[in-house]
Amino acid sequence: MITLPAHRSPLASSRQERGVAPRLRVLLPLLLLLGLVAGCSSAYYNTMEKLGVHKRDIMVDRVGEARDAQEATKEQFQSALEQFSQVVEVKGGDLEQKYKVLNDQYKQCKAESDNVHKRIGAVESVSAALFREWEAELDQYTSAALRRDSESKLAATRRQYEQLITAMKRAESKIQPVLSVFNDQVLYLKHNLNAQAIAALQGELVSLEENVDRLVREMEASIREADQFISKLQKT
Questions:
Q1: Phi and psi for 52 in degrees, rounded to 5?
Q2: Which residue would you say has higher pLDDT here, 195 or 106?
Q3: Can you say whether residue 16 is alpha, beta or left, with left for phi > 0 and alpha for psi between -120 and 50 degrees?
Q4: Chain centroid to CA 149
Q5: pLDDT the model gives residue 146
Q6: Residue 201 burial (C-beta neighbours within 10 Å; 0-12, 13-18, 19+)
Q7: Distance CA 234, CA 105 (A)
Q8: CB within 8 A of 51, min separation 6: which ones?
Q9: Are 234 and 17 in contact (CB under 8 A)?
Q10: pLDDT at residue number 15
Q11: Rounded CA gap, 150 and 103, in Å?
């Protein structure tokens, strides 16, 4: 079991996994007025600390948001693959409409993938701040035994975090190859709205299915890592 540094909120043990998000939304107008959201990260974290929301709380929330973004991306890509399969396998129909369906699916996939990238970046930002603080506070101990214990827990938490962020980035790396295939097919169909275009796309279906399957597996592995990380943080 890992233990994060002292000064946790008295309510932290009872806070649910997504409990910080509503508080952040309530506080967001204040933060915007202070100009901290788009400004210095350290100022933002210091302000949140004064409001009773500690870095560990923000980290749990952001890991949860990144996990949810990956789940949404996985589902969107699966939906897009299903739509793609229907378009290329069904004979006849309005080709212009088929193009619009695929283009809409591509745009949704792109938006979800951008959200995943943003959420992972947010996790990296708060984790860096948390670990810097934890390491700096090691020098404040007067008890050598307590310092060693905290230092050991810091190292263990860092190792677990590295597993998490590696899984997230590995899953994210599988997104672009799938997006590229989707984009190619949408562009091809846009400029070749005819039956031959649909026939040509059928040859890409197997490859696309394999790419999406790999993406889904990596996303699911990353989601499991996030769930485990959140669970351990909430037990401390």
A1: 90, 10
A2: 106
A3: beta
A4: 31
A5: 94
A6: buried
A7: 37
A8: 27
A9: yes
A10: 38
A11: 52
